[in-house]
Amino acid sequence: MSTPDIPATTALTAGQLLRQAREQRKLSVADVALQLNLRVNLVQQIETDQLDSTMLVTFVRGYLRAYARLVKLPEQQVLLAFEQQNGGSADPAKPMRTFSNRAELQATENRFMWVTYAMGFILVLMLVLWWWQTAGPVAENTPGQPATMQQTSLETIDNTIVSATDQSTAAANSSAELTDLGQEADVTVATPDLADDNAVDANPEPVSTATVDAQADVITMAFSDNCWIDVLDAEGNRIAYGTKEAGYTMTVTGKAPFVVTLGNPSVVQITLNNKPFDMSSLPAGRVAKFTLAESD
After folding, report:
1. Other Cβ atoms closer than 10 A to 261
2. CA–CA separation, 27 vs 21, rounded Å?
3. Where are the alpha helices (DSSP H) in the chain?
4. Residue 254 to residue 270: CA distance in whole angstroms
5. 120-140 pLDDT, tens digit each
6. What is the fold of 14-86?
7. Per-residue model confidence (pLDDT) at position 186
8. CB-based contacts of 137, cutoff 8 Å, min separation 6
């Protein structure tokens, strides 16, 4: 059964154009439905121009474009026929806009994330600077402890000397009383003992300030630039710690050997018991840790 010829003066509808192109390519309705992933009855409605009136025009245009591409028809020709059939404008439909603001939200979240990272970095930097500045005064006060110990030792020595002097005076007074009573023999025997006792008591072991100072080694450090230091004595006591400024001269005492850590050894001059320490073997511009002791 042949399809009746349509007069040339009669404009073909979009469905008729698509059906003719399908038949020329010898495709069935089921083949078109399978390739376009549509229902068979929907393909039949497109070819008979009997689409559901409730269907959005945007979807109809999409079906017509897909069908036209399948049967190798110009899309604009099919759409123009559809617009003329429905009495609408032949202008092409405007592309759909997406109202999703996900990209904008993502960009805003990224900016807030970077701002948060920057604030966290600044807070950590301020905390480090605060710790760096507060560590210096504490370290400078630490060397005062040996001086306090020396003062306590000196007071103890002074008290011992005063006590020995008082005992010597009391012994001399007793010797005089015995002489007045005429106990010459006893005095003769006792006096040497008292004199020996007085000599021992009046001259205690020569523990003086010079002796105490001689037992403690003295370190002097002169800084030509800012430098971080850490000094431990032989007993493991931290006697100096922190950052010292340029032009500062520090003197600490303790028991050698010392374990010294310097952030920049090239800016520090060290003397131990008024003897200069050779710094030439230490690396410049790098942290150096070494043992400081008097050479044999």
Report:
1. 15
2. 9
3. 14-24, 29-36, 40-47, 57-70, 75-86, 102-141, 144-180, 184-202, 209-215
4. 15
5. 999 999 999 999 988 755 444
6. 434 Repressor (Amino-terminal Domain) (1.10.260)
7. 42
8. 242
pTM to 2 decimals? 0.30
- SS3 of residue 265 by DSSP: helix
Burial (CB < 10 A; 0-12, 13-18, 19+), residue 167, is middle
Here the tokens at position 211 are 């002796």
Q: 88: Cβ–Cβ under 8 A, 6 or more apart, which residues?
A: 57
The residue with tokens 């009383």 is 177
Q: If you search the block for the tokens 């110009």, which residue do you land on?
A: 74
Name the β-bridge partners of 254.
Answer: 217
C-alpha span between 141 and 8 (Å, rounded): 111
Helix (H, G, I), strand (E, B), or coil: what is residue 277? coil
Kindly give, in sequence order, each residue whose CB lies less than 8 Å from that of residue 224, ignoring residues fewer than 6 positions away: 246, 247, 267, 268, 269
